[in-house]
Amino acid sequence: MAIPLLLVLEKELTKKWLKTGIMLTIPVIYAASLSSWSRGALLTMIALTFMLISDSKRKHLMIPVIIAGAFILIPAMPEEWFGRMHTLETYEEDLSAMSRIEAWVDGWNYALSHPFTGAGFDGWIHVTMRDWHSSYIEMLAEHGFIAFGLWISLLVGSVFSLTGLKRKAKRIDGMEWVIHYSSMVRASIICYMIGTAFLGLSYWDLIYHLIFISVLIKQFAAKEFSEREELRSEQFPSKAKPINVQAFKQK
User: Fold this and answer.
1) What is the reported pTM?
2) Are 193 and 132 in contact (CB under 8 A)?
3) pLDDT tens, residue by residue, 225-251
4) Could you tell me which residues come within 8 angstroms of residue 214 by beta carbon, excluding any fewer than 6 positions away?
5) Which parts of the chain fold into alpha helices (H)?
6) Which of 155, 106, 104 is nearest to 133 (CA)?
7) Cα 210 to Cα 205: distance, rounded to the nearest angstrom
8) Which residue has the higher pLDDT, 127 or 19?
């Protein structure tokens, strides 16, 4: 989740040594995530890599760098690491994975029996006596279906909103900052959605900051879009077309 945010910061900096320093931290974060032995981190890293390649204007440079990094890091990992990652396919043979699935089943069943209230904060203590190991089950089991629907709508709604904003900004000259901010904040939110499928972090404050930031990006983009249209109408009054700024904000 930190990598896209670092790329946003790197884009805004003017000092070359700071920009270089930030870019050098990215492979370190990848290496640290791999060495955490977290299967959720591996899935998140794969998804993030595809998103960064997709959003990059220099795909011909990124792909060789990623391949070279994989050839350097993977041989350095111990055999036990590969054995743990392999349990993604053979999860039924892994005690840790089966323990998580049992907690998820307990949480789901409790949500069905208490659909509106759930078990409350730290409900795992009363329901399953083990950590939820999933933000989705945590929110559902502890607060019920209504709260879960509101929570998931914040995540999914932010992703769709930033995607739509990015597409609109591509059709307007001078709105490159909107494209970059939308892409990176969206990538960070998607990383959260993937990674916390296996970690109970539904109350983590960072994700709510990202949702709020996505709202600010849209508001500032709408304001700048309106100003650009007003300037264009003053310069070229015969070619100006009426713009529904309120509709832009709503979309």
Assistant:
1) 0.81
2) no
3) 887 777 766 666 655 455 555 555 555
4) 158, 161, 162, 182, 185, 186, 189
5) 2-12, 16-34, 39-55, 59-73, 79-86, 95-113, 124-127, 135-169, 176-195, 205-235, 245-250
6) 104
7) 9
8) 19
